[in-house]
């Protein structure tokens, strides 16, 4: 009985002690909660420090939290945000700032204080910064924030001490731990580390570790100070907490402020020259209105600038049996514009960049675009075809220097109007003068640096037709590599034909054979020696920076590696000239000509699609060399076969479509479109404010609007500069024979009347802009062996 009583008493004591323990724990929890709530406000005490700022007018102002405190406590930031700002504040102050960087630090600390109080100016600037990377895993490598919000502030004139600048920073992310090795094409486990996905770099896909970040900072901040600010910000993002260490580099030339770029003398000179050309053209059109063909030099020069006469030349269709060249030329330039639009737009700020890269190497459309450089070989083939046809129709071959000089002048004049820079005694305008004033945006300094600055440096190489051999890494306008190639090949063809027509046929044939064989062997040998792919793949690595590509400099832009298509065109032009001389162009029966035309199109499609095989790394060096040697001449042979089947046979549907009259003026604008469209694309993509979503239908629609705008500008260049220049060259070189470009005065005893050479640029077309056929006498006799 006593034992049971003692047990019950001990049980009561244990229950009482348990209740007391629970009460003590509850009291301790309440005390700790109170202490913690009192600690958080105390953490803001360092921000009570005053910051002294000197304004532009010399006034010294002291800012404190009391001065900048908001009138509405409801707008106060949460405790969590205050802790974040406090962390940033202390990390910035603990950096080793130099004396020159102290103004940047003071202004940044002032910004953080304003954020705590939710001051309008501070929140405005902070709101323009991308504090966290968005869409990185999908391939959005450009975190640009809001460019206009940063610079276009309502108080930029009334409070100059609050002015900011927008800068671009290049960030390279590095892991602090070792990456997990994985097999090629092995799918990712959704529960694996995201760091493995970010660090992984599949072949031909954009790297997720290279980011371009836009940041809005005080104008007093230099590049090194900006790197520190951005490093502190990134350290508190999800990338920093996951263990990614950023290497940040900021170039001061990539920083912009609200100041407007002043116009320089080059810009004003361009405007003056454009106005002068327009006034001269209008006056000459008025003076020449309703008059007959001029006989005097003065009258011919007036007629040379006549807008109506040059427009007639643009619209004139010459019936020579090769009218299909009109359609081929314009459709080719359309494909080139389409390819450049797709490629250049896909290389910069995209919200779905990884998907675009994947489609480029795996989809059917990507297979068509990855080897789209073959369309330029179509121009080389057409240029060689027309050069041969024209030169074979001279009774007595003229001075080759005259032909070369005329070709050079026509190429340079059209190029100079587009590139827009004043150079020495020759008024040549390059994009270096006007391009910086054509737009603005977070990426615009990149466009100015990549195009304008390089044109200022190497404009003279373009004029000397040497830009594809000297300093290719800094060439002015990437697309202009074609022009020196075309000119070099034209010079070689003129010299070879001149040797043949002046008593040295064996030497000419031997040299022609060497050139033809070398044009096939040399590209393959270079590809094999450097272990390059068989084709220049238009993937992300190349499109983002083509100038730095080894294959671009070694095989893509060199004349000796692009000559094979021109040689094929020259041979086919000689064949056509031979049958045209006989007077019977219908040499192929309709069934065979139709089969030949369809077969040539199929051959071209096979060559175009086969280039995607080199997306794989498994292709041997020998196979790559063999493909590099034959793919361009085979493509050109397909185009030549199509032209000859339509010219020497009858292919109803294809011939009628390619000979459609509207192609005539459009084809003559192809050279201007070729030069202009890249400048317009550059402006479009570098003035974008944010990453766009790449949509194929939208790109296709924008490409046609791009062709239209480029065509309008090319028309103005033709009427005001290119057409008058062509006519003046013909008058100056041979004033006795030429009334104007396209009108010849020939006599029966002068059988060497020269023709108009092929039009400059990506291949020529028949007619006054394309070649010299309009200057032929009615009957021509010549002998030709090949």
UniProtKB/TrEMBL annotation:
Keywords attached to this entry: Membrane, Signal, Transmembrane, Transmembrane helix
One Pfam family in the UniProt entry: Acyl_transf_3
Signal sequence residues: 1-37
A GO molecular-function descriptor: acyltransferase activity, transferring groups other than amino-acyl groups
Coiled-coil ranges per UniProt: none
InterPro entries tied to this protein: Acyl_transf_3_dom (IPR002656), Nose-resist-to-fluoxetine_N (IPR006621), O2_lipid_transport_reg (IPR052728)
Residue span of region Disordered: 742-775
Transmembrane segments: 267-289, 321-338, 374-392, 412-438, 481-500, 507-530, 563-580, 592-614, 634-654, 666-686, 706-733
Domain Nose resistant-to-fluoxetine protein N-terminal: 101-248
Protein name as it appears in the record: (diamondback moth) hypothetical protein
């Amino acid at each position: 009985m006593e034992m049971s009583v003692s047990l019950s008493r001990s049980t009561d004591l244990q229950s009482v002690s348990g209740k007391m323990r629970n009460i003590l724990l509850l009291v301790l929890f309440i005390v700790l909660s109170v202490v913690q709530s009192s600690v958080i406000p105390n953490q803001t005490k360092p921000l009570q420090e005053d910051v002294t700022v000197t304004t532009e007018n010399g006034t010294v102002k002291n800012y404190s939290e009391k001065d900048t405190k908001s009138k509405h406590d409801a707008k106060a930031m949460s405790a969590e945000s205050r802790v974040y700002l406090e962390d940033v504040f202390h990390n910035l102050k603990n950096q080793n700032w130099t004396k020159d960087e102290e103004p940047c630090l003071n202004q940044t600390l002032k910004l953080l204080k304003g954020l705590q109080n939710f001051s309008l100016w501070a929140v405005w600037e902070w709101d323009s910064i991308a504090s966290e990377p968005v869409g990185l895993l999908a391939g959005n490598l450009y975190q640009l924030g809001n460019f206009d919000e940063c610079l276009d502030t309502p108080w930029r004139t009334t409070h100059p001490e609050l002015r900011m600048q927008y800068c671009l920073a290049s960030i390279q992310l590095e892991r602090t731990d070792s990456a997990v090795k994985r097999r090629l094409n092995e799918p990712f486990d959704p529960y694996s580390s995201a760091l493995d996905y970010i660090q992984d770099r599949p072949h031909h896909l954009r790297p997720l570790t290279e980011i371009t970040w836009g940041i809005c900072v005080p104008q007093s901040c230099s590049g090194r100070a900006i790197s520190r600010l951005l490093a502190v910000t990134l350290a508190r993002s999800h990338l920093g907490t996951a263990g990614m260490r950023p290497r940040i580099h900021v170039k001061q030339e990539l920083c912009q402020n609200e100041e407007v770029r002043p116009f320089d003398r080059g810009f004003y000179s361009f405007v003056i020259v454009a106005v002068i050309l327009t006034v001269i053209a209008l006056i000459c059109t008025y003076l020449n209105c309703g008059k007959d063909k001029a006989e005097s030099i003065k009258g011919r020069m007036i007629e040379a600038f006549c807008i109506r006469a040059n427009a007639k030349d643009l619209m004139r269709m010459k019936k020579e049996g090769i009218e299909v060249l009109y359609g081929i030329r314009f459709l080719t330039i359309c494909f080139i514009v389409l390819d450049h639009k797709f490629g250049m737009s896909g290389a910069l700020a995209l919200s779905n960049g990884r998907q675009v890269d994947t489609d480029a190497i795996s989809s059917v459309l990507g297979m068509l675009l990855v080897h789209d450089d073959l369309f330029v070989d179509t121009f080389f083939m057409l240029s060689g075809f027309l050069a041969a046809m024209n030169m074979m129709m001279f009774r007595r071959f003229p001075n080759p220097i005259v032909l070369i000089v005329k070709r050079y002048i026509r190429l340079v004049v059209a190029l100079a109007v587009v590139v827009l820079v004043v150079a020495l005694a020759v008024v040549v305008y390059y994009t270096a003068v006007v391009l910086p004033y054509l737009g603005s945006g977070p990426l615009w300094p990149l466009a100015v640096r990549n195009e304008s600055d390089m044109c200022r440096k190497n404009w003279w190489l373009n004029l000397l037709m040497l830009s594809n051999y000297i300093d290719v890494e800094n060439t002015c306008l990437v697309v202009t590599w074609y022009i020196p190639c075309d000119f070099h090949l034209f010079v070689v063809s003129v010299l070879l034909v001149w040797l043949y027509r002046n008593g040295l046929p064996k030497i000419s044939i031997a040299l022609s054979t060497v050139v033809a064989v070398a044009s096939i062997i040399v590209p393959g040998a270079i590809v094999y020696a450097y272990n390059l792919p068989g084709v220049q793949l238009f993937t992300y690595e190349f499109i983002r920076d083509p100038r730095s590509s080894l294959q671009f400099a070694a095989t893509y832009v060199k004349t000796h590696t692009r000559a094979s298509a021109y040689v094929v065109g020259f041979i086919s032009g000689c064949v056509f000239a031979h049958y045209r001389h006989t007077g019977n162009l219908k040499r192929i029966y309709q069934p065979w000509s139709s089969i030949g035309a369809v077969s040539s199109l199929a051959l071209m499609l096979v060559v175009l699609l086969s280039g995607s095989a080199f997306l794989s790394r498994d292709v041997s060096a020998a196979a790559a060399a063999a493909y590099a040697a034959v793919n361009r001449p085979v493509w050109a042979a397909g185009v030549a076969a199509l032209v000859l089947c339509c010219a020497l046979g009858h292919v109803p549907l294809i011939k009628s479509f390619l000979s459609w009259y509207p192609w005539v003026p459009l084809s003559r604008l192809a050279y201007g479109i070729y030069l202009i469209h890249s400048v317009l694309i550059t402006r479009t993509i570098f003035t974008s404010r944010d990453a766009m979503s790449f949509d194929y239908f939208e790109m296709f629609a924008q490409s046609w609007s791009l062709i239209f705008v480029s065509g309008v500008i090319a028309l103005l260049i033709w009427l005001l500069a290119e057409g008058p220049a062509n006519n003046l060259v013909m008058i100056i070189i041979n004033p006795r024979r030429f009334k104007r470009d396209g009108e010849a005065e020939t006599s029966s005893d002068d059988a060497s009347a020269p023709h108009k050479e092929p039009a400059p640029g990506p291949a020529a077309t028949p007619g006054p802009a394309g070649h010299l056929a309009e200057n032929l006498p009615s009957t021509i006799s010549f002998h030709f062996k090949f």
